[in-house]
Amino acid sequence: MIELIQTDITKLELDAIVNAANRSLLGGGGVDGAIHSAAGSELLDECKTLNGCDTGEAKITKAYKLAAKHVIHTVGPVWSGGNNNERDLLANCYINSLTLAKQYGLETIAFPNISTGVYHFPKQLAAETAITAVKEFQAEGGTHIKVLFVCFDDENYRIYEKFLGK
Ligand code: AR6
Q: 58: closest CA among 30, 99, 26, 107?
């Protein structure tokens, strides 16, 4: 079960929304900034207890003032030409977030287009990587977690429409 929508991820009432964070987990710009400002300062307080997060890994918190129940924070790779394991690290973001969702018994999760903003991962390759990772997890994981790909910009939305065959 995969769906595609174009919206602001902070508005979604789901079991979890995923944050494209940085290794400090202490906030930033882009979707990270939007999630922290909508969730309120208690989110930052909980993030301060987590001791950061490595690239490709994921950590879960409550969602405070957001409509979602949890935030899963993951750290995408900074694109630096493609020879630094960027693609596997990006796939790990999706797999590790879904693994956490499964551990917590979550049924609905929304992903932003991780690394395609200030981290400059090429959008087509990022979409292909994200969709492949999610499909593999769903095929192998034996779970029924519903996954929403949330695109914010038009370019990503058009790319996902193409790859998902809409
Ligand atoms: N809802 C959904 N998607 C969004 C939203 C939103 N409200 N706002 C932006 N996007 P970016 P990254 C999309 O830069 O490249 C932060 O400072 C945006 O169109 O947020 O992984 C962190 O702290 C883009 O497609 O994340 C890190 O330092 C996508 O979210 C760094 O940026 C990701 O863009 C992470 O960079």
A: 99
